[in-house]
Structures are given as structure tokens and as C-alpha cells.
Amino acid sequence: GIRLSGVGIPSRLCEIFVGDDDEMVLRLVPPEPGSQVLRVFVNGQSVPDEGSCASLEHGDRVLFGWAHCFQVHAPGRAGRLGLPRPPPEATAASVLSELVPE
Q1: Phi and psi at residue 9, in whole multiples of 5°?
Q2: pLDDT mean over 38-60
Q3: Strands 24-28, 40-42: parallel, antiparallel or unpaired by DSSP?
Q4: How far apart are CA 30 and CA 10, in angstroms?
Q5: Which residues lie below 8 Å from residue 41, measured CB to CB, with a gap of 6+?
């Protein structure tokens, strides 16, 4: 697994599943009692509740907590779907501009 720490990231935050044809799903896990409030955004949209799922696609931007941003790269899937490889680069400014005020 991947370990991140910071504000908005409890000790266990989510699971990412990769299925057939590199189909990807992010699922939030229930937080442990007393842990901090979780915060996950995909392309600027909040993944609202534990147990919620979000499909991930090549090029998507995922923000964990308040400071960890990643871009999904799935070149095999991109080729099958006709998406650009690599995807347009996400910058910190472009990711922050996607966020909807809470």
C-alpha cells in the first residue's frame, strides 16, 4: 500500500481497485473512531462519504487531504480509449482551481 500523512488524511483513507481493461475505482473506507475527517477530491469534485466510490480514468487528478495531489496514468487504458498518452500535465495551480469551495 501507499502511505500518506497530513491534514485530512486519516490512518486509513481509501482503496483503489484496478479491474479488467485497467478500469479503476477509488473507494473511501470508514474512518476509525476518533480519526480526523477525511478529504478526497477527484477532478475537483468531493468524494463525499465513507463507502462512496469514484471511477478513475487516465489523466484524472486526485487530491488526498489538503496537500497530496496525484495524476492517474494508465497508458494501456488510454491507448484502448484513444486518450492522449501522457495526459495533459496537471499543475498545482490547475488542480487547486478545480476545487469547489466547501
Answers
A1: -125, 100
A2: 88
A3: unpaired
A4: 10
A5: 47, 62, 63, 98, 99
